Amino acid sequence: MDEIIRAVTADGYAKISAISGRSIVESARKIHGLSPVASAALGRTLCACSMLGDLLKEKDATVTLRINGGGPIGNVIAVSDNSGNVRGYVQNPHIDLPLKQNGKLDVGGAVGVNGTLTVSRDLGLKEPYIGSTALVSGEIAEDLTYYFVESEQVGTACGLGVLVDTDLSIRCAGGFIVSLLPGAPVSLIDTIEGNIAKMGQVTDILQNGTAEDLIDHVLSGLEPETLSCKSVEYRCYCSRERILRALKSIGSEALGEIAESGENAEINCHFCNKTYIFTPDEIRNILAQTE
Ligand SMILES: [Zn+2]
After folding, report:
1. Are 121 and 61 in contact (CB under 8 A)?
2. Distance CA 74, CA 225 (A)
């Protein structure tokens, strides 16, 4: 079971979210037929987005994490609801790259560094709140850390990891985001940085551990107190009604062309790969309603 745990240090100056997200990333892999490097890139993004979604308080709020680095994988997109249930896709799910010299999947090479990381929070207001920063490495955790510091002025440390097994299934996945509150003492920052340097890779811990173990490592010696613990999953909200609404918005001219073609319109959900079929008669009906 995937879960997000939130905790705070005893002094109240550092908050952490940690996720174990193996099932989420495995679902994404099966839906999209992700290659190992695509599993790692989308998996890290899904885990991060889920933690950001879990922090939203407003009803029906969503957060979208979009990374476009100009690399061969194309755009990487994840969307979370306000409970951390997340969905996502990459433009080129089958991309294959040689491993890096250290034997790791080359996520930075797949994503690229010529572009931006964008966080868009839709809180149900007229306009979403959007922040964006240049990519640092395309490895995603570093890019997100830079985003928080530069765009939201929040001292942040972030670790994300996906371990792909020899049969290409997801062995483990997850990560953490620590944010420092204003006035956090330097000694606290030093302790957290030291803990992160000592703990090794996120996946080293998650292979035999949980989100709670991640928190115990990152906040070692700081007496973390658990605030919440929630189970999360890969969840798409598409439906025939939603697709229908989207169809209506493309305009009568485009709809007319589809109707006249005499063929079924097949509309594919990018997030869950479900196909919705509309017959020419149905398209004509939609057309009649839009006019
Ligand atoms: Zn869907």
Report:
1. yes
2. 40
From 177, 278, 173, select the one nearest 218 (Cα to Cα).
177
> What is the DSSP code (8-state) at residue 208?
T
| In a shared domain, residues 166 and 218 | yes
CATH number at residue 263: 3.90.1280.10
| Distance, CA of 4 to CA of 55 (rounded, Å) | 10
Instruction: Tell me the CA–centroid distance for residue 80 and ligand 1, in Å.
Output: 13
How many domains in the chain? Answer: 2
Looking only at the bridges linking them, the beta strands covering 76-81 and 62-68 are antiparallel
User: By mean pLDDT, which of 18-32, 79-93, 152-166, 255-269 is the weakest?
Assistant: 255-269
For residue 182, what is the DSSP state?
A: T
Same domain, 17 and 78: yes
> Does the structure show a pLDDT above 70 at 291?
no
What distance in angstroms lies between residue 273's CA and the mean position of ligand 1's atoms? 6
Range of the domain at 73: 3-231
Query: Could you tell me the two tokens for 103?
Result: 């034997």
Global pTM?
A: 0.94
**Alpha-carbon span 86 to 242, nearest angstrom:** 18
Reported as a single tens digit per residue, the pLDDT across 103-127 is 999 999 999 999 999 999 999 888 9
In a 3-state reduction of DSSP, which class is residue 236?
coil
Looking at residue 11, what DSSP letter applies?
Answer: T
> What residues are neighbours of ligand 1 (ion), with CB under 5 Å?
236, 238, 269, 271-272
| Helices and strands per DSSP (H, E), number in the chain | 10, 12
